[in-house]
Amino acid sequence: MPPARHAARNLRDARDVLLVIDLQNDFMPGGALAVPDGDAIVPLVNALARGFSHVVLTQDWHPPSHVSFAANHAGHAPFDTLMLPYGPQVLWPTHCVQDTPGAALHRGLEIAHARAVIRKGHHPEVDSYSAFVEADRVTPTGLTGYLRETGVRRVWCCGLATDYCVAWSALDAQAAGFEVAVIEDASRAIDLEGSLAGAWRRLQAAGVARVNSAALSGTEAL
Ligand code: VGL
Ligand code: ZN
User: Fold this and answer.
1) What is the pTM of this model?
2) Domain count of the chain?
3) Which range marks the domain in which residue 59 is found?
4) Which ligand approaches the C-alpha of residue 24 most closely?
């Protein structure tokens, strides 16, 4: 279906938010932590965003000393898993360093009406795949409060990567009491050792809806 189909849609109501996760250069082909085909979703996300009056973006936003970077752990390589005080942590190539070109949003993103940008992973000692709660599972980013205070009831998640930041964000949104859907064709995965299948299992078990962008062209939410 051509993305243009979405452009003419009515804006969804004030209870809906589109959460666009980590559409940043380092996650695009050629980037430091490239997600296969990550750039392919940009036009679709733009089209979806035109159907929402409320859009929130996220940015992975790490200090150079970040605990998730393999380069900060002598003897470890990217994609090793290390046990940290808050649990197992995949070690990543250095990516999305604050205020670098790799951390910038993809230049093809056209969402001028986005209301907020949540930056996450800024604490040196804690990662945060989720846009809601950091990897220590207790430190909030503030997004739950922001969405509640602005009257949001339903969170539509898309972006990168399906099996990490999108899945963790969707699970936390659901746990916080929102109705949640992941828009599968507007997301792409890293898929490390079965991580994508595992993510969909957890999302389904939690009651998160798995939809395609076509679902947004109907009048019924979820
Ligand atoms: C992500 C790994 C490390 C993501 C962020 O956006 O899914 N994945 N940092
Ligand atoms: Zn990261």
Assistant:
1) 0.93
2) 1
3) 3-66+94-217
4) 1
